[in-house]
Design goal:
Structural class: alpha/beta
Order of helices and strands: EEHHEHHEEHHEHEEEEHEHE
Largest sheet: 7 strands, mixed
Radius of gyration: 23 Å
Shape: globular
Number of strands: 12
Strand order of the largest sheet: 8-9-7-6-10-11-12
Bound molecules: 1-O-pyrophosphono-5-O-phosphono-alpha-D-ribofuranose, adenine
Helix content: 25-40%
Distance between the termini: 54 Å
CATH topology of the largest domain: Rossmann fold
Number of helices: 9
CATH architecture of the largest domain: 3-Layer(aba) Sandwich
Length: 327
């Protein structure tokens, strides 16, 4: 957001901008169930810190302040990715004195345009974001241990991420930020570990479609058999009518190894006449060339967030460790 004149904010709560009235029911903007609403938060009392001035605001206060200055989508993205959650005051604890009651009205559009961000500053920002994504990738990699399983020396266990909700949310936010630009109409996740990324669809306000192993859902289209890095042959299905002609979908999974699973998904989407704008995976085992396979099969893009060289967390195994994999 463009810098603004701190003097414009009134310290007098009576003169500050009033919050719009809350909707009936659960509350303000962050009520359940409105497709297209973004944000990832359903708590209208939640405050986030605007990095512009370091103060915490509710969504209503922030959107009132920036009304007419930024588009709703831009502001939602700003709330989601740039504003950091503020610590909640415990019951009985007063809010900090420095906390303004509401932001003063935003500057008029013309004035803001004149303050457009210089290119150099935008470049610095882009570099900073890259560093942030790299740091996040490393932090996630640290909580994904590997151990021998199903005859693989290194089975990467993404369960570790589920024990760190902030990291999981940050991962989903990175994906949502990426897919928002692609204007996707649906997110498809693979059983089972692809289902962990349903928050991405919630953040984007688009449907999440389950791609399930054969025999789990009625009335389906099947990919036919495919092979994976381990466990031989599998088959995945999508329910008829879940994907429509000309849908723009992202296929999402925790990990791409040989690409067998993703290619089966691509085949399913092709049968539905939908476009696979991206195959997106949290982890990419590059040495197994899944990427090339997916591109050849018709995916427009393949994206992996964490490469195998970051996955250096070796699990400590107990003496009685047993590989319970079936094959
Ligand atoms: O690139 P590939 O060689 O196809 O391997 C990758 C797939 O293997 C794993 O799933 P798995 O089928 O084992 O299912 P699970 O999530 O139910 O364990 C993983 O979650 C991917 O979906
Ligand atoms: N090495 C691996 N670790 C975890 N999941 C996988 N799926 C396929 N290969 C895998």
């Amino acid at each position: 957001m463009a810098p603004r004149d701190r003097e414009r904010r009134s310290g007098n709560p009576k003169s500050s901008v009033k919050q719009p009235p809350k909707k009936s029911g659960a509350g303000g903007k962050y009520t359940f169930g409105k497709v297209g609403e973004e944000g990832g938060s359903y708590d209208y009392e939640e405050r986030r810190i605007d990095p512009e001035d370091g103060f915490a605001y509710t969504w209503d206060e922030l959107s009132e302040y920036y009304k007419g200055k930024y588009k709703k989508k831009e502001l939602e993205a700003y709330w989601e990715y740039d504003c950091k959650p503020a610590r909640r005051a415990k019951s009985g604890e007063k809010q900090s004195k420095a906390q303004p009651k509401a932001k003063a009205k935003a500057e008029p559009k013309a004035k803001v345009k004149a303050k457009a961000e210089p290119k150099a500053k935008a470049k610095v920002k882009a570099a900073a974001k890259k560093v942030d994504d790299d740091t996040l990738a490393k932090s996630i990699a640290e909580v994904i241990p590997y151990f021998p399983f199903k005859k693989l020396d290194k089975f990467y266990d993404i369960q570790g991420l589920l024990h760190h909700p902030k990291l999981l949310n940050a991962m989903c936010a990175v994906m949502a930020r990426r897919f928002r630009k692609m204007k996707v109409s649906k997110i498809c996740g693979f059983e089972a570990r692809g289902f962990l990324f349903t928050p991405v669809a919630i953040k984007l306000g688009v449907p999440f479609v389950m791609l399930r192993k054969a025999g789990k859902m009625p009335n389906t289209i099947s990919s036919g058999p495919y092979t994976k890095e381990y466990e031989g042959v599998d088959e995945i299905c999508v329910q008829k009518g879940a994907i429509l002609k000309d849908d723009k979908v992202v296929l999402i999974d925790d990990l791409v190894a040989t690409g067998g699973t993703l290619c089966a998904g691509i085949k399913l989407m092709q049968a539905c006449e939908a476009a696979v704008v991206e195959c997106a995976c949290m982890v990419e085992l590059k040495a197994l060339n899944g990427r090339e396979k997916c591109l050849k099969a018709g995916a427009e893009s393949v994206w992996g967030f964490i490469s195998e060289d970051l996955l250096t967390t070796k699990a400590e195994l107990p003496d009685d460790y047993k590989d319970d994999g079936k094959k």
